[in-house]
Fold each of these.
Amino acid sequence: MADESTESSDAPLLRTLSPTALSSPLSSSASSISDATPNPKRRRRALALRSVAFIASIVGALGAGSVTVFSLYGHLFQSRLHYSQFQINGIASTMNIAMYLPVPIIGYMCDRFGPGLLSFVSAVLAGGGYTLAATLYRKGVQEVEGHAAGHRTTFAPMLLAFVAIGTGTACLYLASITTCAKNFGKGKYRGLMLVAPIAAFGLSGMIISQAASRLLYETQPDGTKGDVNVFRFFLFIAILFIVIGIIGTFALQIVDEKDLIDEAVEELERSGLLESSEVFRRRADRGYGTIQSTSIGDENEDSDARDTLRDNESDMYAKLKKAWLLNAETRTFLADPTMWLFALSFWLIIGPGESFINNLGTVIGTLTSPNTYSKPPSAATHVSIMATVSTVARVVVASLSDLLSPTPESQHIQTGNPHSLPVLRRKLQISRVVLYVVSALVFSGGSLVLASGVVQEHAGRFWIVSSLIGAGYGAVFSLTPIIITMIWGVENFGTNFGIIALTPALGSVIWGIIYSAVYQAGVRNSVSLEDEGTGEDVFCYGKQCYVPTFWAMTVSIWIGASMIVWAWKGKNGWSSRGIVI
């Protein structure tokens, strides 16, 4: 009687669900194609789809990485458009907010509707945003050169353009890494496969900055190369996003997602975490129920019609099961106190990094007094150094994570339950938390060098700062999604990573404001160049322009490193709960 009651109460659920509730596809048509199938043709097709998706994710991350070269043209907003340091940081912070704030929603959409849709959205938003920014930049230069009354009318719409750029970049980046996380969640080198698009994102800064400085440059009166031609650069990036976004719409697919969801449900049932999933298992055992009672029992009905009805209900059931599982895992993720400690750690560390990247050009400008005849180093050079070192660090820590850290053989959420799947252990084991803390300390080393003032009037030493910060920032950013997949699984990765990635938005704004305030205060005490046409002093020179900011950043990074240690070894931390990390 109990079983009959359960079945009768559950059957109407599938009948009464609205089309909207069940319209979410399983990411793509490839979700039913398994590379574990005994059919060689289907296995080859699944492998081909995974390979194409992997290549598309790398290309997508390379395109999304164009956002990291803000320092390449940020200082030109100051010298050509006469924006103040607060306005420049306002644009950078707005872009970062738009890149991080909607990420939980973007991740939710990616998990439920697939990465292909996000790739198309990125083509529209980022492509349109860069096109608008190019138009506004040209208009702003014309206003300044023409000494137009009330110039700087471009600032407000420029903010809007960078909102679109930030959101579009987030869509493409998250679509790329989610594709790799879900398609390569199994295997010995899952961390390296996940970090591949993350490393490409970092490498993109070097490639794009060097290409722009060599191909899209302004010509000086003496015929030498000058700064990047911002108008042409923005148009180039706009076209790049549109092309990559359209390609990714069709190429970014999750292969074998039905099996991924089924395995996750079985694993969590075995752990005792999801007892209510029994209703889905019973429905599967009896052939999806509603078809048996309404269609299959009719002996005279056409067999093709019966097959169609059976397939339709099977799809409805699979979509319902997926939505139910992902919602349950989201609740588990949000209810985990260690997740919030981890998010706080990420915020305290990445916030300073985002601010440094956005202000690298103006930081370099403070290092050399205008009374000296030495030319300050190129911002493009140090953007390239940061990007190259960051890329190497991402690959190295991902490889160390795969080779030295203990790894659960399951790609699903860890419950710490003794009945969970076994763990792949190494002879020499180094926790990913240790790698994360070491990376943060390397990051703080670069910040500490700058805070000490030893680079002032010795701009040739700045490579030490850009290298250490690039290495630490890149390593922390690559270890974060790896830790998320190891502890909370891959099936809900987009949503989980989106929630964690929300925190740098606030950090970027806070540190951008702090840096701008210290910079503007330093203007009054430094030898400044007068801004022609406005009579405003907008340039700062000397240690007072940045030292207080970077001392505070260094302390923030140290606190952030301690937060993840607390999540690992503290009360009810990962270690005490039997979580392998």
Amino acid sequence: MRTRPSHPPALYVALALLLVVLAGCASSKASGPPPSGGELRIAMSAGNIPFPSTPPNEGYEGYRFVGNNIYDGLTRLNLNQSSTLPTPQPALAESWTTSKDLTTWTFKLRQGVTFHDGTTFNADAVIFQYDRLRTKTFQYYDAKSAASAAATFRYFKSWRKVDDRTVEIKTTKPYAWLLWDLAGILYPSPTAVKTYGNANYNKHATGTGPFRMTKYVDGQEMVLTRNDNYWRVPVKLGRIVLYPQPEPASRLSMLQSGEVDWAEVPSPDSVQQLKKEGYQIELGKYPHGIMPRFNLFRAPFKDNLALRQALNYALDREGTSALLNNVGYPATEYVYDGNPSYTKNTPGYSYDVEKAKKLLAQAGYKPGELTLTMAYPTGGSGNMYPDTMMQKLQADFAAIGVTTLLKPMEWNTIISIGLDGLQAKQWSNIDILWASPASGMMPTGFSTSYFCNRPGGLKNAAGLCDPKIDAALTAASQQADVASQYKYLQQMMDVALRNAYFLFWMHDLNLRVLSPNVHGYVQPQSWWVDFTQITVGKD
């Protein structure tokens, strides 16, 4: 009988380490050819790969490409159609009931759903995430994610597990919009959180969504691979590869060189040429605008309606649109015409230089006396073309005798300012702050910009505090009837317009360009997108 030669333990250790290294090398690549359905490579406008946390960062672009692909909410938006504004639909919750006073909601959870790691989604997983984001004494409390998710939990009073497939949520007041909030609350695998901890969770992000994270190199690339066990629909697309490219020219170059199949907001001057080359040009109205915020904590804008109106009349919106090759269009108010919150009672601001000059005088300023500092991003999620737009704004204001000092910043810094507020010492020298809200995508989205106070007792980031707006927005959120909700929101828009609380500037047309090989894409009236039914390949 032959005997197996003995090897020293050190050799086995070396072999084991070699296997680990080889495995790491294999996992660092998008392994082999793409699965059936093809590989969709995307050049994002974000400056970095969104953290796959719950919630993700990088604004709604983080939700669009990362959050909603790795995870699910109890509800979801019906993004597979383009004819109407998407609304909440059953997702991880298959049904729900609410008390007559809209303060107690009971959700029946979908059975048979598993996380990417094979563990079961159930009521315990829901309660785990709520405690992780709301209960400071909870072992796995995540302060960073809690701050980002605070707005979605604004009206949560309590939550409890009724049984394995039933969860009850109580709100602090009658609240009709909980289903909208729940679309933005995402559920990680409790096992993954416990195993890796909050600090290392992003490297091992694990949800129930249509795609699994199979590669993540911060600042460079993320690969999402189809979840063949996805509960909702068979996912057609095999793989998504994400590249952060904050410069429009870089996104255009990657598209034309064949490095990507999808480019977010490439250079607007390229649209006609791309169309001639056979690319799919996607444009359409959706809830997104560029609506800069006045610093209402102090002069010159506090208690100075005439000045706020003067700058609104000074904006040549049609000229800005022309500079952008009409991939955006003039804003008459915060939401676009066609959004159910839109009010036609009050006309918006036209381009009227003489009227702007008269209002500037009423505001107490002669031409050349007023200098303003405006902070804006150099790029980033959903910001259209800030450099070009800001140069036009600067020229428009100069035409009525107002000097504008431009203060370019990284997009995440702009987000931080929005969280800290313009009353914070480090940002108090900013007079106008760039804002690119998902204006009207969800009624819950108005709360951060319009309410006097934010969660945690913080003041409105720009100092906006109008009792009429608070009353209208609160009343809207307490109406069981949807038509009544929007009636109050229209009243709120009317107050905001009359008081010129924002610089109502531009609406975006959501330009994105796709390769001819991309099929099955639907351009919804939303920042978010359904990737499950897309395929990539030749006809």
